[in-house]
Amino acid sequence: MTEVASAPVVLRTPSVIGQLLGDLAITYREVPDHPGLDPARKVQAVLLDDTVGVLMVLFTQNHLLDLNRLADLIGRRMTAVSAERLERMLDKHGLTQLPGLPALINSPCLYEEQLLLQPALLISAGKPGLLLEVTQKDFKRLLNNASAGRFGEPLSEIKLDHTGDDGEAITRAVQAFTARRIQQRLEATIELPPLAESVRKIMRLRSDPDVTIDEITSVVETDPALAAQVMSWASSSYYASQSKIRSVEDAIVRVLGVDLVINLALSLSLGKSLGLPKDNPQSSTPYWQQSIYTAAVIEGLTRAMPREKRPEVGLTYLAGLLHNFGYLLLAHVFPPHFSLICRHLEVNPHVSHSLIEQHLLGISREQMGAWLMGFWGMPGELTVAVRFQHDPAYIGTDSDYPNLVCVALGLLRSRGIGHGDCAPLPDALFERLGVPRDKAEAVVGKVLEAEVMLREMVAQFGQP
How high is the pLDDT of residue 194? Predict the structure, then answer.
């Protein structure tokens, strides 16, 4: 227990938890949660249900809960209880997190047998930031009426491919689920929709340094839905137009500018080419909200960079809008399995989506999205940004683009926006961008101050 011996205690155990452990004669030690704690000692608790009833499942945070293995083990296909139901259950006890204490919920319990290999374990106290350390002997007593089993996958066994050919990886993943079509070419196998002509026109305009207002206005006006979106953006309170917007040209010239209109139009058109999935993980950040918030933060971070090393603002903004495009592609390519990914994200909040996707499919959304960016001929900077957005150590070609996305996503996760663990971003990442950490935090704060107006834009993106 030496790793936590000197950590100062700043939080207190909720009375309901203290009383429960006292009644069971379980001794415990309060430990502030921090990233340096060994995940092999941290107990992850999740509540699952089906038509039979509720089951508490316990495993360590260096494992992924595999719902397929669990179904094979117990003969029941279960999913996470709804966020609303869990909140009601915890509210009765004045808690906000689920502790790994079966007696609290009074439901059957199943635990990963690897749990008991640890001499001491760390259990959530029911509030963020505080863990309770108990000995293996005492933890066994807590599991007196529980059953053991093997249903977890060690995270160390799930390998992400950072160097291989993404096209080949996609082919392998698709072939694993479509054995009858194993000889078909990749493009036919995954049945990608053709790139819409309006998108092609927008991409041509984007690559033309001499594009005129008339040209972009003409393209926008030929798509009534896109024209209505541009008018709505320009009229929104986020852009604080001083007068009424009367035309698309008016919106471009007086409010939005050519670069922003092209980027927004391109992102919206690409998103609609695949469509939003009907299934999503519980409590997930909606697709367009994640995209627009990320793009807004990246725009601020880019402008905060030293002028001499600052990349193209419009392209970094577009990288933010399209960073999660692989999510849409996964839903499009693997519809029978996308729901399974969602269910695993719900029961493994401590695991990155990339590891879950790699475990289930052999491919991640980042690989899929980056491959499609290249397949469709998008700028190389976007391909790199999508592919390496979760690698804080990336220093390859055009590294500023994925580094900016990485910072934006990490800072937004720390504010409760987005999925995944809130691991601290390394200082080296901020140093490479030339943006001090406190200045980057200030950028996020400024963006979130405009949250009401940003949500207005999100609603406009979600319109047909």
Answer: 57
The residue that leads in pLDDT, 52 or 365, is: 365
Beta-carbon contacts of 458 under 8 Å, excluding residues fewer than 6 positions away, are 286, 288, 289, 292
Q: Any idea which fold 2-157 has? A: YbaK protein (3.90.960)
User: Would you state the torsion angle of the CA atoms of residues 204, 206, 208, 211, taken in this order, to the nearest 10 degrees?
Assistant: 110
For the chain, the straight-line distance linking the first and the last C-alpha, in angstroms and rounded, comes to 56
Mean pLDDT of the 71-80 span: 87
Buried b (16+ CB within 10 A) or exposed e, 255-279: bbebbbbbbbbbbbbbbbbbeebee
Query: Does the pLDDT at position 188 exceed 50?
Result: no
- Inter-helix orientation angle 258-274/287-304, to 10°: 150
What are the backbone angles phi and psi of residue 206, rounded to the nearest 5°? -65, -35
Report the length, in residues, of the chain.
464
Residue keyed to tokens 């950590």: 7
Please report, for the chain, the start and end positions of each structural domain, with discontinuous segments joined by +. Answer: 2-157, 166-191+275-461
Q: Alpha-carbon distance 446 to 282, whole Å?
A: 28
Residues in CB range of 84: below 8 A, 6 or more apart:
none
Architecture of domain 166-191+275-461: Orthogonal Bundle (1.10)
Q: Under a CB-based contact definition with an 8 Å cutoff, are residues 456 and 236 in contact?
A: yes
Q: Among 150, 95, 152, which residue's Cα sits nearest to residue 124?
A: 95
Q: Cβ atoms within 10 A of the Cβ of 355, count?
A: 19
Residue 292: other Cβ atoms inside 10 A: 23
Distance CA 206, CA 9 (A): 55
The pLDDT of residue 125: 93
Contact 128, 30 (CB under 8 A): no
What whole-number percentage of the chain has pLDDT above 70?
85
- Helix spans in 392-433 (H): 400-413, 427-433
DSSP-assigned states of every residue in 135-161: EHHHHHHHTTT-EEE--EEEGGG----
Query: What DSSP assignment string belongs to 332-345?
Result: HH-HHHHHHHHHHH
Alpha carbons 286 and 194: distance in angstroms, whole number = 25
CA-to-CA dists, residue 134 to 39, 53, 398, 419, angstroms:
15, 29, 48, 29
